[in-house]
Amino acid sequence: MKNANLLDQFFLNDPKIVGEFVKAASLKKTDRVLEIGAGTGILTRELAKKAGKIVALEIDKTFKNELSKMPGNVEVIFINALVYLNKPAKFNKIVGSLPSSVVEPFFQKLTKLHFNLGVFIVPLKFVKKLLTDPSLSFYLNAKLISKVGKGSFIPIPKTNWALIKVTLQEFLKDNNNLSFINQYLIEHPEAKLKNALMEAVVKVKKKQGQKITKNEARIIVSQFKLPGSTLEEKVILQDLFLLSKKLQIFFKQKPPKKIRGV
After folding, report:
1. Which of 76, 93, 133, 134: CA 20 to 30 A from 167?
2. Max CA-CA distance within the chain?
3. Is the pLDDT of residue 82 over 80?
4. Coil, strand, or helix at residue 133?
């Protein structure tokens, strides 16, 4: 483990934390789990006892010998996890004790993935950002399970870490149209909310095989009585969640033969 710090890695070495981690993952034999950063395999082995399949990613081939001794339901792939996640992968749970240097880019990728549950060990200071940064909290629901002391790792890091549980926000689970619209809004923060939503509605209707004009979209959006502000200025996440519920009802309705007032 001499080169551990070259890859900014601190390896979990605390059986108590490993136990908490596995418990938080609520594993079943039907679960297909993607593990980010297998390291020595201390966590991988325990996960494999509960899950049906583990795909363990590790960038450092120094651990090839340790990871070659994994149970039969573990597949080890030596690859950069950020590269691996660029391609479609089948898993319903994603876990890992993450190197601090990949935490932020990894969670940005996580906002674009579909999964049921994530359990991670991350720097404690990152938890606040995860809870308050709209680019993350808009998509991800995070819960602090416990703080993890520096002594739980080899080598010992300079800061404390945290065990967290992450799920997708409900609107991402329920309706692909809502996912598209909310993503469109959050990725156009400087646009007027009404204008951005109008554009999103037109695009969704096009995906549904229906063609509507901007004027028709304007009438639809006017039903929601939105402020004229930009997303960056005044619209808070709760507003968007309430809007999501209204949109969910709207997109479940059969398209009208003619929009009143058009």
Report:
1. 76
2. 72
3. yes
4. coil
Structure tokens at 240: 């968007």
Residue 261 lies in a domain: no
H runs (alpha helix) in 38-98: 42-50, 64-67, 81-84
Mean pLDDT on 86-94:
91
* Mean pLDDT, residues 80-92 taken together: 92
Write the CATH number for 245.
Answer: 1.10.8
The answer to whether residue 262 sits within a structural domain is no
pLDDT at 40: 92
Of the candidates 100, 135, 168, which is a domain's last residue? 168
Write the pLDDT tens digit of every residue in 43-57.
Answer: 999 999 999 999 999
Q: What CA–CA distance (Å, rounded) separates 53 from 31?
A: 7
For residues 160 and 109, state if they share a domain: yes
The answer to whether the beta carbons of residues 130 and 142 sit under 8 Å apart is yes
Instruction: Count structural domains, the chain.
Output: 2
Tell me: cis bond preceding 155? Omega within 30 of 0 counts. Answer: yes
Per-residue confidence (pLDDT) for residue 232, from 0 to 100: 45
- Do 229 and 164 have their domain in common? no
- What is the C-alpha to C-alpha distance for residues 109 and 107, in angstroms, rounded to an integer? 5
Alpha-carbon gap, residue 67 to 37, rounded angstroms: 11
pLDDT value at 110 more than 80: yes
Chain center to CA of 217: 30
User: Considering 168, 198, 216, which residue would you say is the last residue of a domain?
Assistant: 168
